[in-house]
């Protein structure tokens, strides 16, 4: 029996340590080296030089902060779009058809990220659908430059991340206790007041986890800025990727940047969740437990 | 009550607008794949199946497709095995704290930003001496899909009546036999759904395939490369096929998930009355 239990726990622990944790640890180790892979004539030294390179170069810091802001803005816009949709399904749809309505929204997200980004390109290109309609209607003479700018990156990002916002928010709204809404109505709260003072506070945990997830996904999205950002796109994810694409000599710097991205991303997301959803579980009908 | 009705209508309109906004771009791809003409874009003057005939003879596309399928099969097997094992370990833990810690550690790849996980794995395979290519991509996909398997399977395990295994054991089955003859059949729909989700994740994945791949591209990496080297309607045809395959796998996963009752939520007592109120 003892051995059975050790075997039952040992396998998963081995996998988790080997596959989930070891790559991150190895990445952190490389980020402290000055040369990797070690050249025969050069003994690599350990230090925080790569991190110093980051802080002393305003270009890198600017790109990094820009990416953080962009990810935060994406979370906010995704929340503003996803909340009414989730609300419409969870509260204004008969229980029977809720899942069907939800699947209709989920289905587009089964496709590959690349497929969806190609679709955004077809939508926004100079000869794309939007410009085709605008020119066909005679609203514009020359095609609008919709593609290869921050706008197209934002559109593509939303098309990639929206589901990660929709599902947690939907789950939170769906398990909202209707008695509380009825009580608020009975006490004379108008619909908007009910929404702002009861619905939104009680779905804080869904809002928090949705925002945290979307923030982390958009922070780490590489294909979106690479495909839709154009030649001048400055995103931290593409900066990191370029350090790995060009020459192996820059791996340590790229690893340090990745550590910075990971630590700051998880910290911001974690702080946000702590700040927004501290006591939400208490009210939402024991939802979390 | 007319205000409430107006708000309900506005919300319904917003929902359907979102559905259209999400589906229409995908339909554009299908339209482009059928377009007669050499450039991608509007106006569309005529339709043709020429591009599909063209990719039927495209060796590169065919090889990428086979490569993608092989990777999906390999990574799904690994993710299923490790995910199932982890889920069983999680459910066996009595201590709530230990259980939560194990779930968090198992789901770490879900909250690691994509670029970080991709280059961490790139560094890792270099450290263990694995060349970029089939094995590296399959490993990367398995790491990424295993958390989904863990979550789906442990949900279903939690629904299992506790006395089922006890009954089997009191009838003389050893732990292994009880697992094979009782637990595994109970988990079958959840395992099916998890397998399809892992297949989908692997088949759709671009980031890990891009950083862990060698010379042979997977289908999404091939599409990515061709998107850079100038748009031709041929990409539309390849993308349409990839899109349809993804939707098919997704539909199958949904059907299985529904059958395993993973998606049924506890209904609220006031729920139906409330809804009829609003309608």
Task: Please give a quick description of this structure.
By secondary structure, chain A is mainly alpha-helical.
Structure overview:
- The complex is a heterodimer of chains A (289) and B (279).
- Chain A has 289 residues and is mainly α.
- Chain A has helices at residues 2-30, 49-56, 58-92, 95-106, 113-124, 129-136, 150-174, 178-186, 191-202, 204-219, 223-228, 236-245, 251-276, 280-283.
- The longest helix of chain A is centred in the N-terminal third of the chain and has 35 residues, at 58-92.
- Chain A is globular.
- Chain B has one domain: MetI-like fold, CATH 1.10.3720.
- Chain B has helices at residues 2-33, 50-56, 59-92, 96-106, 108-111, 114-127, 134-158, 163-170, 175-204, 207-212, 219-228, 233-259, 271-278.
- Chain B is globular.
- At the A-B interface, α1, α3, α4, α5 and α6 of A face α1, α3, α4, α5 and α6 of B.
Per the principal axes of the C-alpha atoms, what is the gross shape of chain B? globular
Tell me, rounded to a whole number, the average pLDDT of chain A: 86
Note the total helix count of chain A.
14
Our estimate of the beta-strand percent of chain A is under 5%
The shape of chain A is: globular
Give the N-to-C terminal Cα separation of chain B: 10 Å
Helix content of chain A: over 70%
Number of strands of chain A: 0
Radius of gyration of chain B: 23 Å
How large, in whole angstroms, is the Cα Rg of chain A? 24 Å
Features:
heterodimer; A: 289 residues; mainly alpha; 14 helices; 0% strand; disordered C terminus; B: 279 residues; MetI-like fold; globular
Any chance you could write out the topology, listing elements then pairs?
The complex is a heterodimer of chains A (289) and B (279).
Chain A: H1 2-30, H2 49-56, H3 58-92, H4 95-106, H5 113-124, H6 129-136, H7 150-174, H8 178-186, H9 191-202, H10 204-219, H11 223-228, H12 236-245, H13 251-276, H14 280-283
Chain B: H1 2-33, H2 50-56, H3 59-92, H4 96-106, H5 108-111, H6 114-127, H7 134-158, H8 163-170, H9 175-204, H10 207-212, H11 219-228, H12 233-259, H13 271-278
């Amino acid at each position: 029996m003892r051995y059975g239990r050790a075997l039952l726990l040992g396998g998963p622990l081995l996998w988790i340590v080997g596959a989930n944790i070891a790559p991150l640890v190895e990445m952190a180790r490389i980020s402290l080296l000055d040369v990797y892979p070690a050249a025969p004539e050069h003994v690599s030294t350990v230090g925080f030089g790569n991190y110093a390179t980051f802080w002393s170069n305003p270009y890198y810091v600017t790109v990094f902060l820009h990416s953080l802001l962009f990810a935060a803005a994406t979370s906010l816009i995704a929340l503003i779009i996803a909340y009414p949709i989730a609300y419409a399904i969870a509260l204004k749809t008969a229980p029977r058809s809720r899942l069907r309505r939800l699947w209709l929204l989920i289905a587009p997200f089964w496709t590959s990220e690349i497929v969806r980004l190609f679709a955004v390109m077809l939508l926004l290109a100079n000869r794309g659908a939007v410009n085709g309609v605008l020119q066909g209607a005679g609203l514009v003479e020359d095609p609008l430059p919709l593609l290869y700018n921050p706008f197209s990156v934002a559109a593509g990002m939303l098309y990639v991340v929206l589901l990660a916002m929709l599902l947690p928010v939907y789950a939170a709204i769906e398990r909202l206790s209707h008695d509380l809404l009825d009580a608020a109505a009975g006490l004379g709260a108008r619909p908007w007041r009910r929404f702002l003072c009861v619905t939104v506070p009680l779905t804080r945990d869904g809002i928090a986890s949705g925002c945290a997830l979307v923030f982390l996904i958009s922070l780490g999205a590489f294909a979106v800025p690479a495909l839709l950002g154009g030649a001048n796109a400055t995103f931290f994810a593409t900066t990191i990727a370029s350090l790995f694409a060009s020459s192996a000599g820059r791996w340590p710097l790229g690893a340090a940047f990745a550590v910075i991205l990971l630590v700051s991303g998880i910290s911001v997301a974690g702080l946000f969740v702590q700040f927004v959803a501290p006591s939400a579980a208490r009210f939402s009908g024991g939802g979390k437990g | 009550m007319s205000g409430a009705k107006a708000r309900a209508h506005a919300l319904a309109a917003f929902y359907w607008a979102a559905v259209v906004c999400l589906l229409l771009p995908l339909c554009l791809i299908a339209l482009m794949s059928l377009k007669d003409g050499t450039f991608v874009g509007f106006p569309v003057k005529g339709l043709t199946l020429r591009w599909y005939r063209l990719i039927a003879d495209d060796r590169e596309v065919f090889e990428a497709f086979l490569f993608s399928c092989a990777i999906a099969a390999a990574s799904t097997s690994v993710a299923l095995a490790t995910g199932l094992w982890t889920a069983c370990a999680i459910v066996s833990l009595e201590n709530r704290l230990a259980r939560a810690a194990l779930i968090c550690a198992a789901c770490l790849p879900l909250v690691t930003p994509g670029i970080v996980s991709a280059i961490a794995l790139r560094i890792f395979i270099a450290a263990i001496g694995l060349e970029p290519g089939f094995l590296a991509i399959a490993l990367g996909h398995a790491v990424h899909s295993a958390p989904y398997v863990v979550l789906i399977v442990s949900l279903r395990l939690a629904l299992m009546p506790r006395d089922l295994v006890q009954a089997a054991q009191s009838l003389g089955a050893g732990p292994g036999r009880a697992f094979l003859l009782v637990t595994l059949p109970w988990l079958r729909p959840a395992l099916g759904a998890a397998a399809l989700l892992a297949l989908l994740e692997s088949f759709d994945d671009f980031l890990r395939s891009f950083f862990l791949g060698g010379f042979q591209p997977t289908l999404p990496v091939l599409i990515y490369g061709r998107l850079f080297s100038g748009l031709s309607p041929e990409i539309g045809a390849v993308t349409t096929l990839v899109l349809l395959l993804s939707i098919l796998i997704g539909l199958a996963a949904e059907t299985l998930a529904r059958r395993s009752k993973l998606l049924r939520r506890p209904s609220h007592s006031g729920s139906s009355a409330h809804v009829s109120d609003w309608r």
